[in-house]
Design goal:
Helix content: over 70%
Number of domains: 2
Shape: elongated
Number of strands: 0
Oligomer: single chain
Distance between the termini: 52 Å
Number of helices: 9
Order of helices and strands: HHHHHHHHH
Length: about 240
């Protein structure tokens, strides 16, 4: 365990909020990931503070190297306890928002009521095509914004158009993403933010340990020895010795 000497430390870039701020489309969706940005910022600043505290504590010549480690570890533990809750809360909010958006982008399409028999004719036409031709028909309809064709095929049970359930879900998702690009982009930003949080969470514990200058196991061993020493220094009341 190396607890003596100064080491130049910096906070890992994994904890920097810029990891979320730089996600493509962030500006349009920042309100949905603001809590995650705050969490990363808090983690980054907390580790930086522990590093700074360690440097200042090390200037105190009245304390032993072991005492300095324990003091810094106590500060790191306080930050860790607070940040664990922040990470869990931010991650939970993002997961719920992502699930809700996924559901919105997978909703079945509603047919155009006024289309009448046209819907059935479009489905019959699609069903008569080969699989490749059917896929091409739907792809072109979605990309060109042809809601009549896409709505007729995707707004009814898949077997009526010769689609499998998987194909039906796939093209329904594509349709929603094409007609609601802002929601689709927002989903990507939220997924990206959640990914950054998941990567930063384990890095936080490692960074706090580096900032302290000792492993968790070493800190626990030092604390146990300190507790034992302090317990031994407590004055006790003794009963008078009985006469033989």
């Amino acid at each position: 365990m190396a607890i003596d000497g100064e080491v130049k430390l910096t906070v890992s870039p994994t904890l920097h909020p810029q990891n979320i701020l730089s996600i493509d489309g962030y500006e349009a969706a920042k309100g949905y990931v603001a809590d995650a940005v705050t969490t990363l910022d808090a983690a980054h600043q907390s580790v930086a503070h522990v590093i700074e505290a360690r440097q200042k504590v090390n200037l105190d010549e009245s304390r032993t190297p072991r005492a300095k480690v324990l003091m810094t570890a106590q500060l790191a533990d306080k930050y860790s306890a607070k940040l664990q809750k922040q990470f869990e809360s931010s991650g939970g909010k993002l997961i719920k928002a992502i699930q809700h958006t996924e559901q919105e982008l997978s909703q079945p399409l509603q047919q155009q009521a006024g289309a009448g028999t046209v819907n059935g004719e479009i489905r019959a036409h699609a069903k008569a095509l080969s699989r490749d031709e059917r896929v091409k028909l739907l792809t072109v309809a979605i990309e060109s914004g042809d809601i009549t064709t896409a709505g007729a095929i995707l707004g009814a049970p898949p077997y009526l158009s010769g689609l499998s359930d998987i194909e039906h879900k796939h093209f329904t998702r594509q349709y929603h993403e094409a007609t609601n690009p802002e929601m689709a982009q927002r989903l990507k930003v939220m997924q990206g933010a959640l990914d950054r949080l998941k990567r930063a969470h384990p890095a936080l514990l490692q960074e706090l340990e580096k900032a302290v200058g000792a492993s968790r196991r070493d800190v626990e061993r030092l604390q146990a020895a300190t507790n034992e020493a302090e317990a031994a220094l407590v004055m006790k009341d003794f009963n008078p010795a009985s006469e033989a």
